[in-house]
Amino acid sequence: MRPNILNINKYHIKYLLLIIILLYAADFSHAADTKSATDETSAILKVESKEAAAVKAAANAAVGEAQIIEGNTAVARDKAIDAAMRVAVEQAVSRYLSYVTIDENFQSLSEKVYSKANSYISNFNLLNESVTDDVYTVTIDTKISENKIKDILIKLKILTVNKDLPKFIIFIAEKGIDNSKYRFFWSSDEGSFIESTTAGDEIRKRFTEKGFTVVDKSEVMSKIKRGSLADKVALKDSDVIGLTKHTSAEIIIIGKALSQVMGNIQGSSMKSILGNVSARVIDNSGMLIASDSASAKVLHVEEGIGGDEALKKAAVVLADRFITAIMAKWGVDERESATINLNVSGLTYKRLQDFIRILKNDIRGVSNIVQRSFTSGGKANIIVDIKGEAAYVAKELKRRDFQTIDIQVTSFDAESINLILKQKESYDELPSLQTDGG
User: Fold this and answer.
1) Which residues of 160-185 are buried (b: 16+ CB within 10 A; e: fewer)?
2) How far is CA 209 from CA 9, 197, 318, 325, 401, in A?
């Protein structure tokens, strides 16, 4: 019997239609899933972008809190914002002053600066606000007028004007956990030489943040001799004064830094690590300004990294103490401005230029120099505006060992100083070059 071809074709057609419908449904489902996944990914990226922006803003954020009294959330919110503004200004002040200085002047800062926080903030953004247990909390990102902060601190004589802060140089020998002996930049031994130390770098960073100027150690390297100072870990005051005499350094920091493992934390891989930095500060005449030490402990799995962190923390504490001591004893703001006549003889034009350079770069407090005359007899009259007295200038010029010229102070009074200049033998002026005719 012949098969019914029509029935077979109908059967095949139905079967094919069913397959097509199923394939279409599966494709539609996949497209929907893809769109859903794309939308979800886009949403995640948007959330992450918002979170990243929030983290960035939080770097300059300040948090304030206020108690909600009798359900009055509006008043509590305003007070929380005021408290956050105060925190923001406190943070700005800490960028200019050491913690010790802030503590000593807390009442004055509270009355004159913190209580008027909104006058130092030009704009703020509200990052977050919440209520927990009748406490209203806000987080704000602020735009603070740094110049206004700086000006009020100078006006209150808490901050010293940066241009008058003394120049400094650091001699710190350091022994880390991974080192068998102390290392320092003035060493002639390759095993002990190190370009810079962890503690020294942190002290230098803290000082420069406060407006001090660091003297490049390359200025003293040429003076260091193998077999004498080059192998000393513990330096004497006389050692460094001799080295820095021809530099512009006005204060010298001398000391040692040591990190060591104190023991393991029971039940963990963490180690207790101690960092200690001890140092003293002298001026360029050898007078002691401050002597102190600071220690810090950290917990860390890696001994070397933990040792560096401990030294950094101790160095910051010590640097702040030294900055406070220097500010107190230097008395920059207490000095009155004066105009002093310098009558100088023994000059050539080159010596005159060297002398003016010394006045500009090496004598603290000089604000203006006017050369009134220079005669063929090697004499000049120079007017100097300076924050200080003629006696101070005379003392500095007489005491210092300048690299190119010797300066002899013959006499001085309240308004003038008489000087004679001589070229150092090692820096004889070159004669004019002669050429052969022909």
Assistant:
1) beeebbbbbbbbbbbbbbebeebbbb
2) 91, 18, 15, 16, 29
For 85-94, write each residue's pLDDT tens digit.
999 999 888 8
- CATH class name, domain 335-427: alpha beta
* Cβ atoms of residues 300 and 311 within 8 Å: no
Q: How far apart are CA 104 and CA 98, in angstroms?
A: 10
Please say whether the structural domain 61-155 has been given the CATH code 3.40.190.10.
no
CA 399 vs CA 212, 245, 284, 362, 365: distances in Å: 22, 9, 9, 12, 17
Tell me which CATH code domain 162-333 carries. Answer: 3.40.50.10070
Helices 73-94 and 146-155, packing angle to 10 deg: 70
Mapping DSSP to helix (H, G, I), strand (E, B) and coil, where does residue 374 land? strand
Alpha helices in 191-249, H assignment, sequence order: 198-209, 218-221, 237-244
Spatial separation of the C-alpha atoms in residues 254 and 186, rounded to whole Å = 12
pLDDT tens for residues 330-369?
654 444 678 899 999 998 888 888 888 888 877 877 878 9
Provide the phi-psi class of 227: left if phi over 0, else alpha when psi is between -120 and 50, else beta: left
DSSP string, 54-121: HHHHHTTEEEEEEE--TT-HHHHHHHHHHHHHHHHHHHHHHTTS-HHHHHHTHHHHHHHTGGGGGGGE
Domain residue ranges of the chain, discontinuous segments joined by +: 61-155, 162-333, 335-427
Secondary structure letter of residue 188 according to DSSP: S
Taking only the tens place, the pLDDT of each residue in 280-331 is: 999 888 889 899 999 999 999 999 999 999 999 999 999 988 988 887 676 5
Q: Is 348 helix (H, G, I), strand (E, B) or coil?
A: coil
Are 298 and 310 contacting, i.e. CB atoms less than 8 angstroms apart? yes
Q: Where are the alpha helices (DSSP H) in 345-426?
A: 349-362, 390-399
Q: What gap in Å lies between CA 227 and CA 416, rounded to an integer?
A: 45
State the pTM of this model.
0.48
Looking at residue 215, what DSSP letter applies?
P
- Give per-residue pLDDT as tens, 92-145: 888 777 777 788 788 889 999 999 998 899 888 999 999 998 999 999 998 888
Give the number of other Cβ atoms within 10 Å of residue 19's Cβ.
Answer: 10
Could you give the 3-state DSSP secondary structure of residue 9? helix
Q: Where are the beta strands (DSSP E) in 192-332?
A: 213-214, 251-264, 271-283, 288-300
